[in-house]
Design a protein that fits this description.
The protein has 132 residues and is an all-alpha fold. The protein has one domain: Fumarate reductase/succinate dehydrogenase, transmembrane subunit (3 helical TM bundles of succinate and fumarate reductases), CATH 1.20.1300.
Length: 132
Amino acid sequence: MSSANTRANRPISPHLAIYRWRLTFLMSGFHRATGFAIYFGTVLVAWWLVAAASGPGAFVVANRVFGSWFGLLVLFGMSWGLIHHMVGGVRHFIWDFGAGLGKPARDQLALATIVGSVAITLIVWAVALAIR
């Protein structure tokens, strides 16, 4: 068998051009992306904690940054990412028990993850802004 023939008959490795863009496929990507964002968001949490431990001057600067419109937008995104990742983890936990693996149930759980994470994030922020 020639080298060209061998290469032509090999299976194609799956990648984004092969997969269909389904809701569960997108949710898998979102779960990975939110985990990555949470990892780097901890740097901001660490900065805030170090500023609090450093004294009032550093703490005022950190609070001004997080209290600005851009800081609040970043905090909102971080909180949605954390909540979305948590709800996605619950979805995976359900799958670990063998439940929700059929196509309709998979799609319903994926949609529930999106709706649930957005709803919980909005509730958390509504309560936080009301207390503020």
